[in-house]
Amino acid sequence: MTRSVPTVTLPSGEAIPKLGQGTWEMGERPNARKSEIAALREGVELGITLIDTAEMYGDGESEKLIAEALGDRRDELFIVSKVYPHNGSERGVQVACERSLKRLKTDRIDLYLLHWCGGEDLEGVVAGFERLKRDGKIRHWGVNNFDTDDMEELFALDGGDACATDQILYNVARRGPEFDLLPWLRERRMPAMAYSLVDHTRLPRGGARRVGVSGGACVGACSSARCSRFQRPPMSRTFGRIARRSSSPCPPTNSRTSISSSGRRGRSARSKCFDRRG
Prior knowledge:
The chain is an alpha/beta fold. It has helices at residues 33-45, 61-70, 90-104, 122-134, 148-155, 181-187, 235-245, and strands spanning 7-9, 15-17, 19-22, 50-52, 78-83, 109-114, 138-144, 166-169, 192-195, 211-214, 217-220, 270-275. The longest helix has 15 residues, at 90-104. The radius of gyration is 18 Å and the shape is globular.
């Protein structure tokens, strides 16, 4: 029997799990496939029914793995996927979504995100997302790695305030969003979705005394929450610079920390969670 986990409410009023399973780097190694499938299924049994993926992850292989692992439990899931910025146009997001739907073997994506800022036609992306919603291909849309300036640009567009969430790098060691992004989201009653919650299993040295859960996000009690170590990073612009320097079109993302049902640590689902304070 599937257990339940705490929920958070999207702007639409829908309640979804605060904690989710991420699938970056899953589906890429044939010898790990069985353990990855077991980890996803075990997570769902534990109530972690929000599953996060992207067309970028394994060039679609992660989405295929989810279909294989959880296709028989689709109606229990809240599936999140993401579209590349280079597909960021009204037509581009629709075509990319169709490909993701095919790989996921489903008729809808519950939350569809623009993966990061990267020269896309933001107005066209919003129009494309809204068209996908009208057609029943997606149920909600949002953004990923947007900083405050990016969110203000988005909200200035017609229909931009229909955004459901902003997925961001946020954990006890990387607290830049607390300076202005989280307050900005809070004012608009929009939850933030945090990734890399344990910072690739690293914790900050000298300052973090305990780690706990507050509002669904990983937080810590530090000697100074405003100390110089926590300077605000301009997230999307940082990712854009990384992507331009790298041979890969993607920003570096998150850690793999889950344990498979066999108890062996491996490349498996990384955690996501929503912070209702945002």
